[in-house]
C-alpha cells in the first residue's frame, strides 16, 4: 500500500498541475486562517502559504525547478495583476493630483531609505559587495528588482528571495508600525506600504481600503521606476 502511494506521488509530483493546485490550496488555507482569526497581520495569507509550501517541498524532497514548472502559471499572472492595480488608482486620480508634491517628496525619500537601509544592514552584518548589491533593490517589486540586480552586479535569484521576505515583513508589521507612529491618513499609510513592501504590501493596503490600496499601487509602481533609474547611478558613482 505504501509503495503504491509513493509511486502515485512520484507520478503526480512531476505534473505541473499538481504544484499549481497545491499553491492555490495553500493560499486559500492562509486566507481562511486570516479571516478566521480576525485578520491578524501575523497570519498574512502569503506568509502562511509560503510556510506551508516550504514544509511540503521539504517533506516530499521536491526541488524548486520541479515546483516552478507548476507555479510559473501564477508567476505569469504577476504582470497582468500589477497592471490591474491601475484601476483603483484611476478611481483616486483627483486625490493623487491634489497631493502630487507630497507624493513625490515621500517617494524620493522612501526610495533612498529603502536602498540605504538594505545596504547598511548588509554592511553591518559583514556582507561583501555582491551581497550588498543584491540586497539594494529589496523594496522594489520582484521582476523590476531582479532586472536591477542583474544590471548592477547582484544575484537576481537571491534578490527575488530578499524581495519576497521584505514584502511579507512589511505586510505583517506595517499596521503595527503605522499605529505606533500615529500615522492615520489612509493616503500616507498606502504610500508607506507601497514603497516599503511593494506588491505584498499593496495587497494588504487594498484590504485596508480603496484609498490606501490606490496610493500603495501608485507608490509601488513609481518606486520601481525611480529605483531603476537612481540605483545604477548611485552604484556607478561609488564605483
The structural class is mainly alpha
H/E element sequence: HHHHHHHHHHHHH
| Biggest β-sheet description | none
- Tally of separate domains: 2
Helix segment count?
Answer: 13
Annotation, overall tally of beta strands: 0
Integer average pLDDT? 83
Query: Which value, in Å, is the CA radius of gyration?
Result: 19 Å
Spans of at least 5 consecutive residues whose pLDDT stays below 50 are none
Molecular structure report:
The chain has 13 helices and no strands. It is an all-alpha fold. The protein has 2 domains: 2-76, no CATH class; 83-238, no CATH class. Helix 8 (100-124) packs across helix 12, helix 8 (100-124) crosses helix 13 (210-238) and helix 12 packs across helix 13 (210-238). The longest helix is centred in the last third of the chain and has 29 residues, at 210-238.
Question: In a nutshell, what does this entry contain?
Answer:
With 239 residues, this protein is mainly α. It has 13 helices and no strands.
Describe how the helices and strands are arranged.
Blueprint (H helix, E strand, L loop, with lengths): L1 H12 L2 H21 L8 H16 L3 H13 L1 H7 L1 H6 L1 H6 L1 H25 L4 H7 L6 H11 L3 H25 L5 H23 L1 H29 L1
Helix pairs in contact: 2-3, 2-4, 8-9, 8-12, 8-13, 10-11, 10-13, 11-12, 12-13
Amino acid at each position: 500500500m505504501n509503495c503504491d502511494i509513493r509511486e502515485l506521488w512520484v507520478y503526480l509530483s512531476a505534473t505541473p498541475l499538481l504544484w499549481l493546485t497545491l499553491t492555490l490550496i495553500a493560499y486559500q488555507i492562509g486566507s481562511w486562517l486570516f479571516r478566521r482569526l480576525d485578520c491578524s497581520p501575523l497570519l498574512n495569507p502569503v506568509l502562511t502559504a509560503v510556510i506551508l509550501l516550504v514544509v511540503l517541498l521539504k517533506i516530499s524532497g521536491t526541488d524548486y525547478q520541479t515546483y516552478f514548472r507548476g507555479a510559473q502559471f501564477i508567476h505569469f499572472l504577476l504582470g497582468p495583476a500589477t497592471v490591474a492595480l491601475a484601476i483603483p488608482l484611476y478611481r483616486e486620480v483627483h486625490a493623487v493630483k491634489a497631493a502630487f508634491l507630497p507624493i513625490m517628496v515621500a517617494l524620493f525619500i522612501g526610495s533612498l531609505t529603502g536602498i540605504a537601509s538594505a545596504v547598511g544592514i548588509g554592511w553591518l552584518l559583514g556582507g561583501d559587495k555582491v551581497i550588498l548589491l543584491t540586497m539594494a533593490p529589496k523594496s522594489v517589486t520582484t521582476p523590476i528588482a531582479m532586472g536591477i540586480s542583474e544590471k548592477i552586479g547582484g544575484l537576481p535569484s537571491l534578490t527575488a528571495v530578499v524581495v519576497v521576505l521584505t514584502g511579507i515583513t512589511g505586510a505583517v508589521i506595517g499596521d503595527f508600525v503605522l499605529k505606533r507612529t500615529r500615522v492615520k491618513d489612509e493616503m500616507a499609510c498606502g504610500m508607506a506600504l507601497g514603497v516599503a513592501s511593494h506588491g505584498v504590501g499593496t495587497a494588504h493596503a487594498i484590504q485596508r481600503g480603496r484609498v490606501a490600496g490606490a496610493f500603495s499601487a501608485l507608490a509601488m509602481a513609481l518606486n520601481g521606476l525611480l529605483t531603476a533609474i537612481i540605483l545604477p547611478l548611485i552604484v556607478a558613482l561609488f564605483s
